[in-house]
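Anyone up for a design puzzle?
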């Protein structure tokens, strides 16, 4: 399973879990809880309805109530088991990948790093930085509304970043797009992509 498929399954599980806990959840609140754009949250809701995982009923004040169908409950159980199995594997691989990336940073003489993309990988990268001698000075993500992430400032403009030596890609949802965007703005030699993302940098560079 590639990163995009993993993320899609993870978001679907989060949608089913959120609705299972609160049937009158608004789409805007759901989007905030999932950490995605409102349009994407709406898209996943519609997908779940089409698959017969969720049913919708009208509520007062032009609102809607969402319920898990028996099929939705079954799918939630399946996805929960899938996530637990795969997330443990992912966390181990991602942790080792971040450690290797920081070794490369040290070999390059870099100590101050910017993480590019808010995600579980960014969280792992921050945790692994504590025992690596690497200082995470900021996160860069032009597609999020967040301004803080695990005690770090989040920037939406490259020009506003504090002083740094290099970049580490941590976008799980659109890795190739984030990488290509970044190397169109900065020296590609300053950008490290963790092995866990399995990005073909050569093909990405040729597509620019």
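Challenge accepted. My sequence:
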């Amino acid at each position: 399973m590639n990163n995009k498929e993993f993320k899609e399954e993870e978001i679907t599980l989060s949608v089913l879990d959120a609705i299972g806990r609160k049937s009158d959840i608004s789409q805007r609140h759901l989007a905030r809880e999932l950490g995605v754009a409102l349009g994407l949250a709406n898209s996943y809701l519609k997908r779940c309805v089409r698959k017969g995982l969720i049913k919708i009923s009208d509520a007062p004040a032009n609102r809607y109530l969402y319920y898990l169908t028996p099929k939705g409950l079954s799918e939630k159980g399946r996805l929960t088991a899938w996530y637990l199995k795969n997330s443990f594997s992912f966390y181990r691989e991602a942790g080792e990948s971040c450690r290797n990336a920081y070794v490369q940073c040290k070999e390059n003489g870099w100590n101050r790093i910017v993480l590019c993309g808010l995600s579980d990988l960014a969280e792992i990268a921050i945790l692994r930085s504590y025992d690596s001698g690497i200082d995470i000075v900021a996160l860069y993500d032009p597609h999020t509304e967040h301004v803080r992430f695990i005690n770090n400032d989040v920037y939406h403009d490259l020009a506003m970043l504090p002083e740094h030596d290099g970049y580490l890609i941590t976008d799980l949802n659109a890795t190739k797009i984030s990488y290509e965007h970044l190397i169109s703005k900065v020296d590609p030699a300053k950008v490290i992509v963790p092995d866990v993302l399995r990005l073909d940098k050569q093909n990405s560079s040729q597509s620019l």
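A detail worth pointing out: The mean pLDDT is 88.
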